[in-house]
């Protein structure tokens, strides 16, 4: 069956979603792997395989456009090339499962990227043989995923609260007359606590009970953080929800204050929660108390951007005018009114003329770094489909990661 593909390369995990062209507009998760590459001594790359001999690379997706490359043993590789290699591998794995090539591929990226960063990723994708691709800002993808099931009228606004394991952002998008979306405002968090920091706060509470020699399970902390009941037991220590909320309240208030600054005077129709960190009930509760609109989240908010990217790819192929208005349905919500998920719009096609020069940088006196010739073609041919994989039913380790 003909399909399109959406790929979201997060700091912790990379997710691929497919959307059928002759089926419903909803997307489904096809593959989830850790955002982890490792160059082996044999000169081949493995994907998602922790440990073993070699030189690992993580966190590269957020460093696209950085002039300083990753040093992987005998090789140096820019962040955009590592990102493109992982995307290429994801596409290949989905093609092997589906038995045919996707009609189009959409890849999400942070809303703060300008033409230079987008151009660097486009160039790296072309170098590894991925040509028919559209880059979609993450809040647009979140919004498009929502618009699949909830009617979003032209002129209305949606706010996107994104919290992953290592990144936070707040955005506002507006529905245009042509049924696409426009970015109204965006703030990228810098000094904010993210999912991994909340894990550490919970671990500190447990360690305070156990003493300095106590051993705390990081996996238990991560799982308990997002699914707090009246109390949780971690490494044999019971932590009440009120105690955890009191510990994280300053961090949550900081996140919410930044989000409200991004919203400004705009009155959004809904707040869309994106990223695995939003599974924490305290996030939804704090936002519900601060905004006068619905606060909406999917059961797995870490997958919302990948699904929305797939929906955006479908719009690129079929066009927004071919899609009927959705019938409102309901999902997990954090406020008083039941509704659904998220919407995006068709991202503009890249124009190579935009990518001729990087944005201006402040004057800094540094010694020039001579980069060796790029070897991305040789690296791409050496990429091996190794490592742990999961589809829509990912294993427990994948489910315990915040993603993004």
TrEMBL record:
- Family matches, as SUPFAM superfamilies: Actin-like ATPase domain
Record's keyword terms, sorted: ATP-binding, Chaperone, Nucleotide-binding
InterPro entries on file: ATPase_NBD (IPR043129), Hsp_70_fam (IPR013126)
- The keyword DNA damage is annotated on this UniProt entry: no
Molecular function (GO) terms for this protein are: ATP binding; ATP-dependent protein folding chaperone
One Pfam family of this protein, by short name?
Answer: HSP70
Ranges where the record places region Disordered: 342-404
Kindly provide the name given to this protein in its UniProt entry.
Hsp70 protein
Q: Which organism is it from?
A: Lentzea xinjiangensis
Tell me the classification of the organism that encodes this protein: Bacteria, Bacillati, Actinomycetota, Actinomycetes, Pseudonocardiales
């Amino acid at each position: 069956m003909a399909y399109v593909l959406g790929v979201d390369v997060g700091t912790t995990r990379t997710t691929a979603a497919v959307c059928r062209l002759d089926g419903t507009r909803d997307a489904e998760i096809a593959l989830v792997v850790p955002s982890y590459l490792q160059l082996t001594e044999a000169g081949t790359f493995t994907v998602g395989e922790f440990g073993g001999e070699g030189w690992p690379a993580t966190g590269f997706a957020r460093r696209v456009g950085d002039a300083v490359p990753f040093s992987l043993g005998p090789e140096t590789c820019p962040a955009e090339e590592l990102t493109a290699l992982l995307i290429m591998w994801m596409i290949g794995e989905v093609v092997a499962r589906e038995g045919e090539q996707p009609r189009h591929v959409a890849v999400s990226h942070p809303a703060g990227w300008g033409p230079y960063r987008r151009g660097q990723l486009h160039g790296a994708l072309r170098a590894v043989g991925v040509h028919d691709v559209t880059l979609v800002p993450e809040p647009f993808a979140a919004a498009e995923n929502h618009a699949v099931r909830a009617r979003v009228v032209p002129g209305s606004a949606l706010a996107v609260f994104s919290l992953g394991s290592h990144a936070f952002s707040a955005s506002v998008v507006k529905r245009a007359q042509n049924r696409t979306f426009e970015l109204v405002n965006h703030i990228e968090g810098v000094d904010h606590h993210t999912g991994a920091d909340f894990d550490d706060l919970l671990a500190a509470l447990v360690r305070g009970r156990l003493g300095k020699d106590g051993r705390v399970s990081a996996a238990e902390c991560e799982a308990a953080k997002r699914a707090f009941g009246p109390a949780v037991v971690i490494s044999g220590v019971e932590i009440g929800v009120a105690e955890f909320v009191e510990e994280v309240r300053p961090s949550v208030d900081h996140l919410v204050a930044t989000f409200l600054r991004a919203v400004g005077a705009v009155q959004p129709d809904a707040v869309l929660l994106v990223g695995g960190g939003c599974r924490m009930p305290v996030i939804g509760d704090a936002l519900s108390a601060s905004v006068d609109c619905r606060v909406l989240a999917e059961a797995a908010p870490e997958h919302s951007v990948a699904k929305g990217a797939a929906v955006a790819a479908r719009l690129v192929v079929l066009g927004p005018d071919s899609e009927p208005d959705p019938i409102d349905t309901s999902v997990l919500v954090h406020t008083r009114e039941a509704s659904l998920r998220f919407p995006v719009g068709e991202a503009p096609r890249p124009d190579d003329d935009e990518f001729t020069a990087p944005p201006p940088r402040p004057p800094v006196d540094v010694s020039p770094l001579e980069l060796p010739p790029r070897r991305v073609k040789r690296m791409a041919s050496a990429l091996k489909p190794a490592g742990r994989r999961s589809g829509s039913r990912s294993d427990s380790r994948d489910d315990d990661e915040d993603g993004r």
